[in-house]
Amino acid sequence: MSEPLRLGIAGLGTVGAGVVKIVQAHGDMLAARSGRPLAITAVSARSRAKNRGVDLSAYAWEDDPVALARRDDVDVLVELMGGSDGLAKAATEAALSAGKDVVTANKAMLALHGQALAELAETNGAALRFEAAVAGGIPCVKALTEGLAGNRVTRVMGVMNGTCNYILTRMESAGLPYDDVFEEARALGYLEADPTLDVGGIDAGHKLALLSAIAFGSQVDFDGVQLQGIERVSIDDIRRARDMGYRIKLLGVAQSGPDGVQQSMRPTLVPADSPLGQLEGATNMVVLEGDAVGQIVLRGAGAGEGPTASAVMGDVIDIARGVSIPAFGQPADTLATPRRANEAAPCAHYVRLLLRDEPGALAHVATRLGAAGISIDRMRQYDHPGADAPVLIVTHPCPPADLTDALAELATSSVVADEPVALQIQDA
Amino acid sequence: MSEPLRLGIAGLGTVGAGVVKIVQAHGDMLAARSGRPLAITAVSARSRAKNRGVDLSAYAWEDDPVALARRDDVDVLVELMGGSDGLAKAATEAALSAGKDVVTANKAMLALHGQALAELAETNGAALRFEAAVAGGIPCVKALTEGLAGNRVTRVMGVMNGTCNYILTRMESAGLPYDDVFEEARALGYLEADPTLDVGGIDAGHKLALLSAIAFGSQVDFDGVQLQGIERVSIDDIRRARDMGYRIKLLGVAQSGPDGVQQSMRPTLVPADSPLGQLEGATNMVVLEGDAVGQIVLRGAGAGEGPTASAVMGDVIDIARGVSIPAFGQPADTLATPRRANEAAPCAHYVRLLLRDEPGALAHVATRLGAAGISIDRMRQYDHPGADAPVLIVTHPCPPADLTDALAELATSSVVADEPVALQIQDA
């Protein structure tokens, strides 16, 4: 059997400790699968004193992750510190510059600096792998980059922030408003220190940008992701959507059209009986669609010690096995400059309006939508104790901009009592 | 860019033609992802004259697939003929013996000869890859062998024969008996020439044996798969199971216990609201469970031109990229000799009994089951127009053998009017 592959682990939070546990527990199994032993030689974290529930005494300690990355006895840097810049990026660059492979779970760093890091890796003949950065334990980066490599990818979708899916499904099951469930989630420790990363869709947007780059062979373009968080999703819309056969998810969609790639992460309706619609709680789901394979759905835990460490180990074992594939599936210098679609692809919409209870109000709405070329698939008016009548509309597919314009005009009309709510519907 | 990777395709049925179409349609994309062009140089099939809807004029023709495998201008044999022995095996052996890589969709060949072929591949430094042999377009072999390589796998489950799942879901949705739906499926061309391969669970059993070998690091042991087909699943059981919150699937389960590996492919109840329970029609699903990752669910088309060709191409691109991983995830000579579990793992059961409508009948059943150590979770007696009363029982987990013995005894009792039906229930 060959020489051990020597790992330096930077970051000993939940995931880092999980990786240490796997290496310690499964040495023989990992060696058999890798074709060589895996050995942790050095570790680094902020506090040496902290008890992490794992025995680190056999490993060299470095206070500085950059120094860890540069150690002669480290072949692979396992970067689990997080943060898009600062030490994580410095350590990653140090390792890659020295021709060392890097395995990272750092979605923010890759979403913002993925292209530069992929180029640095290739210049130095090093691997840069990030399965753990997207949807935790689900091997979706591998499925897309390798398993589906024979496909022209048509669409990638994903529910990739477990906290948001927990909040949305809990709102529905408990009948609680957003603010209450948000506080519950905070108390349970489900939220990032800056909760906007979760509920604002930023974290999930980072992940989508990574999958999108692989899917469409273009440079990571996080700034091109249209972001909308779940903060304004109301329990009312969740219930009405359910009435119409849909559920609301924080859904990422990346699709390629004639004039470029469209990436969005926003609250979206999906059919209640689809795999995405049936997804409960903190579980993640990634949907990959290709011209040959059709639709592939992947489901699993999107976070947590074991699942994320599992993804890290998959990458480490690939490296031990000698697998060498460009970070984004093709050489970094062949990735296209991002081309953002000017016009969003047509899709069906859910629209909620509050109409004054006066003659002709509904006719007025229908007429204005019709004039804007927006065709109504279904419309439902609800009982209303007050003076204003809630009306739900499901449109046939139309350009989102056309609907936005039409609703902006309707909002100024005297028959509309409140700001209209519009959400996109994705076939899933 | 490097030299082209030269493919020889043996077998030009649906899948073979699909592979040709992908190579012809996506040359640039495949070259970018593979790091080198992919070129078909030669093909082989039974009839040269047949119109397959693809232009084969640029490729050399071989009547004999073994000769194809031996050609100097073929680097990779793509074996899509099928059949566990005969020409498929001869061509595969010829290629591997010559140190050429083989990509195959041939589950029967691998289920019966996988160990010998893996050894032959490794002796000759060749790759043997078979993503397309299991669950069509779903990259489950890759997910298990590579993505989840850091896990001790605890259980693998799968609905891996689309025809059987079509029949079972159609029986339920149309309220039709097995024989009628079987004939429908035959008319639709869903059945193999020998339908026992499908409805007898053999085809799905082949696939399970392959996943099981990878999961547990042991030699493929198809003979160790306990097989039971769907031929005797009644519409009655489908309905009653649904009443109790379950659906019946032809489910493969492989799990490792203290005394060995247990593999079974049989009609099984799964919770109706689980991903497996929600699976409709011809779609396939593979569930992988590991100690770190928890549960990963993969869903997609299990057959057909595009999906299967997609899986073939994923393997071909891996080879073009220089990926070299042993066929079953670790060197063939380190795969353990199959050790079959003597005792099946305890599980809950669904039992349907027809009882004589006489005082004490139900008490008799409950008493006998209790005496056998079988504890009842739920029991339901149905209206009965006739003299005999259908009774459903869901047991708490018990050793399957204990239940079999208890039911055999009950079957001889005067209060039981018909042969009891018992099906296992899997948590999913």
From TrEMBL, chains A, B:
Domain ACT: 350-424
Organism the protein comes from: Jannaschia aquimarina
Keyword Oxidoreductase part of the UniProt annotation: yes
GO process terms (BP): methionine biosynthetic process; threonine biosynthetic process
Residues of the active site: K207 (proton donor)
Name by which UniProt lists this protein: Homoserine dehydrogenase
EC number: 1.1.1.3
PANTHER family reported in the protein's UniProt record: HOMOSERINE DEHYDROGENASE
Binding of NADP(+), residues: A10, G11, L12, G13, T14, V15, G16, A17
Family from the record: Belongs to the homoserine dehydrogenase family.
GO molecular function term, any single one: NADP binding
UniProt: L-homoserine binding residues: E192
InterPro entries to which the protein is assigned, alphabetical: ACT-like_dom_sf, ACT_dom, Asp/hSer_DH_NAD-bd, HDH, HDH_cat, NAD(P)-bd_dom_sf
Pathway participation: Amino-acid biosynthesis; L-methionine biosynthesis via de novo pathway; L-homoserine from L-aspartate: step 3/3; Amino-acid biosynthesis; L-threonine biosynthesis; L-threonine from L-aspartate: step 3/5
Keywords in alphabetical order: Amino-acid biosynthesis, Methionine biosynthesis, NADP, Oxidoreductase, Threonine biosynthesis
Top-rank taxon: Bacteria
Residues at which NADPH binds: K107
Gene: hom
